[in-house]
Amino acid sequence: MANLYLHYAFDMWLAREYPGVTFERYCDDAVIHCSSQEQAVKVRDALAARLADVGLELHPQKTKIVYCQDADRRGDHEVTSFTFLGYTFRPRLAKNKRGKHFVSFLPAVSKDAVKAMGREMRSWHIARRSDKSLTDLAQMFNSIVQGWINYYGRFYKSMLYPLLRRINEHLVRWACRKYKRLRRRERRARELLARAARRFPALFAHWRFGLKPDGWTMGAV
User: Fold this and answer.
1) Contacts of 50 (CB under 8 A, 6+ apart)
2) What's the pTM?
3) CA 212, 216, 217: angle at the middle one, nearest 5?
4) If the chain, 221 residues long, is cut into consecutive pieces of 10 residues, what is the mean pLDDT of each piece?
């Protein structure tokens, strides 16, 4: 019901009053694209008045005017980043088709999203599952990890690498607990997993993504 209400209160109003302004909205979170700071201020103030008319208000802390700083827009502004749907948009180093680096305004997985995925990963207690095989573990968690990769790996995927490498660390601890000969021998546990990855490179979703337990990483930003 709230989404339907905002379609009337926000979407239809904005399209009618500012037809040249594009926007995206998901539930009560929205991004409005303006061509100048003056236009952004005007739209923000008009939107605040519109929402007040229908019994709503802009969030005082989350509502910001963001300058999309990049190689072409080099002005100095207070706010140059924002987070939307788990992605943080900010100036980042990119590479063009000729291999030259430049600054672009790009999305990547947000810190809050990484923290949430890390909490879920820890809740799996992989190291304690010594009754499971590597194949069992892959079957238990691959669908979740693949979902993360599918969503957050679409843009600037290298920002996912540190998070997904943690799975290999959990697997090392799992191997140390599962096999007596590997107790307190993490280097040998890593070697065991590296051999498994060479034999079955598609076993884990993050291995298919290029993050093998031997430290080899495929691909770039």
Assistant:
1) 9, 10, 13, 17
2) 0.87
3) 90
4) 90 96 95 96 97 94 95 92 97 90 96 98 96 97 98 95 96 94 89 94 96 64 40
Q: Nearest CA to 89 among 71, 70, 75?
A: 70
User: How many other C-beta atoms lie within 10 A of the C-beta of residue 53?
Assistant: 10
Q: What is the rounded distance in angstroms from the CA atom of residue 17 to the CA atom of residue 90?
A: 29
Looking at residue 219, its pLDDT comes to 47
Nearest alpha carbon to residue 107 among 157, 146, 63: 157
Which DSSP string corresponds to the chain?
-HHHHHIIIIIIHHHHH-TT-EEEEETTEEEEE-SSHHHHHHHHHHHHHHHHHTT----TTT-------SSS-----S---EEETTEEEEEEEEE-TTS-EEEEEEEEE-HHHHHHHHHHHHHT-GGG-TTS-HHHHHHHHHHHHHHHHHHHTSSSGGGGHHHHHHHHHHHHHHHHHH-GGGTT-HHHHHHHHHHHHHH-TTSSHHHHTTB-TTS-B----
* Other C-beta atoms lying within 10 Å of the C-beta of residue 100: 8
Residue 117 to residue 37: CA distance in whole angstroms: 35
| Angstrom distance (rounded) from CA 116 to CA 169 | 18
